[in-house]
Amino acid sequence: MKALTWQGIRSVTVDTVPDPILQQPDDAIIEVTSTAICGSDLHLYEVLGPFMNKGDVIGHEPMGVVVDAGPESGLSPGDRVVVPFQIACGDCYMCRRGLQTQCETTQVRAQGMGAALFGYSELYGSVPGGQAEFLRVPHAGYGPVKVGAELPDHRYLFLSDVLPTAWQAVAYTGLSGDADLAVLGLGPIGQFCARIGVHLGMRVHAIDPVPERRQMAARHGVTVHDMGEEAIGTIREATGGRGPDAVIDAVGMEAHGSPVAKATQLATGLLPDAVAQKAMETAGVDRLAALQTAIELVRRGGTISLSGVYGGQASPLPMLTLFDKQIELRMGQANVRRWVDELLPLVEDPADPLGVDDFVTHRLPLTQGPDAYEMFQKKTDGCIKVVLDPKG
């Protein structure tokens, strides 16, 4: 089959790799009909290279049609499914508590990490990903979400990651209705964080340096701002001088405005893999400009919700400010299956309350995946969300 594979920092290629086969009774094989590029994939593309191996099949936002199913999978050929980015059993202590990203059956204990993820480095199990023509899905009796055949792929595809991640980020703020929410970053996750806030009745401000991203969010009732101190002042003024009740950091470890940390990340990536891994595990530093902004902006007694991925072990935090302002921090990978039942009616609603129809900016064949990665990273051609079509 054809698949998009990691070959090095800022290098992915389309290669022929072996077709996946059933390995366990609860496995399923899907023919992928749509697969998206996630902002988290860019971390593999740029920063997390020391944990990747040449030829790794990447991608963790797929959906498709079942072509083969093990006897314990609960699936049948022809079923149309969305595949969550994490692999979880559904029955362990953590899964029963809605913490599927901490699944005790699939935890990558050799790395001291949580549940295995599709297409996401040695840290999360080196499981072949979904930017491919076919995908083996372990624990298919629990993970895949069956969907109908009437609506187009893009209505369902983002249940794999983007929508649950954004929904959890908003849920973790503890806000609803009459409240002020700020969102830092209007990439794919930030777009839906902001829209979900509006959908739930909040006053939503969002900050992003890219005009096309601001324009998209503004179409959905979000008050948008360019980066800079002026935005901080404007938002604070609009919230009675206090700042918003909660801030969502939807940017993560590669934030703009952190030149020293960026140089450190890039230098680490040039070291031999074994040395670079150790350096990142013990002394890794994230670009914290977005998180620092969140800490500055949120009102006293407010909440910061982190949905942007962070990976540093030595990232300095202003503990005095966090303590003095009595800020609550919540974070973590999205527990997809925990939120799907709330999201499925919204993506199937003909009124499209979250604006899923106004989200994908580029749909390209899988063969153009390398160009798509470069375009997405550089934010050229108005690129906000790319979906790849394996059938092309």
Automatic annotation (TrEMBL):
**For the Alcohol dehydrogenase-like C-terminal domain, which residue ranges apply?**
188-254
Task: List the cofactors.
Answer: Zn(2+)
Q: Which domain of life is it from?
A: Bacteria
UniProt entry keywords in alphabetical sequence: Metal-binding, Oxidoreductase, Zinc
| Gene Ontology molecular functions | oxidoreductase activity; zinc ion binding
**Which residues are in the Alcohol dehydrogenase-like N-terminal domain?**
24-141
Q: Which family does it belong to?
A: Belongs to the zinc-containing alcohol dehydrogenase family.
Protein name, UniProt field: Glutathione-dependent formaldehyde dehydrogenase
Natural source organism = Sediminivirga luteola
